Amino acid sequence: MKFDKEISHPIHPHHKLKLEYTEIPFNCDGCKEAGIGLKYKCLRCEFDLHKACAVARPRITHPFYNKCDFQLHYTPPGGARRRCDACRNEVLGFVYHCRRCDFDLHPCCANLPQVLQDDDGRAFYLCLKLSGACHCCGGKGPGWSYRSDCRAYNLHVSCVKELLVESWQAMYLNVDKNKVREIQTRIPSLKGTLQNHHHGGRGGKVRKCCEIAGGAVRIIVSAILGDPTALIGAVVGGFMSK
């Protein structure tokens, strides 16, 4: 899909925004969420928009909520605090809101693909609810997740975002450098988890699922926050044990 290299946007009407690619994390001035990869940037101001926020359509539907009519709001509607029903983060800016059902989605979350495939054709499915424990947090709490087609691997969208944002803050905001290592080792060994899941099974099946899980982390990161980079590769390296 082609995108305009330069656009105007109503929340930043005085200057044009230019499409660019960045490997440095940024905070979107639309939805207030983290991003990386393609963005629209004002070259005269410190103003950035996710590609998904910059070109967000006024109204959308979503297959998870087939009775909903989502309308784009530049500020959260109503006076109460709102949370995105996909990633469970608080809504602080751009949001798709269904007035009738009271559901909310960040533009980037609303655009998450239903199916992701790696280079080998393995599939990861976007799920409204977890069918098994999230490998990162160990819980089955609310929020969307991606599940491998072998059903051995589940990961909350919210957990991916939290780990990456905290790691970026540690790397770019001059906080304690040990924070990066702490974040990378916070979750249990994925390899060990999968071996327990397939206890008594054939070794080839275990190896296959470990390979699937390693690919899942990278492809899910790409879908949620942008293009995978060397930085992301280092951050998600903690998901796998050698």
TrEMBL record:
InterPro entries: C1-like_sf, DC1, PKC_DAG/PE. PANTHER family: CYSTEINE/HISTIDINE-RICH C1 DOMAIN FAMILY PROTEIN, PHORBOL-ESTER_DAG-TYPE DOMAIN-CONTAINING PROTEIN. It holds the Pfam family C1_2. The keyword Metal-binding applies. The keyword Metal-binding applies. This is Phorbol-ester/DAG-type domain-containing protein. The lineage of its organism: Eukaryota, Viridiplantae, Streptophyta, Embryophyta, Tracheophyta. SUPFAM superfamilies: Cysteine-rich domain (SSF57889).
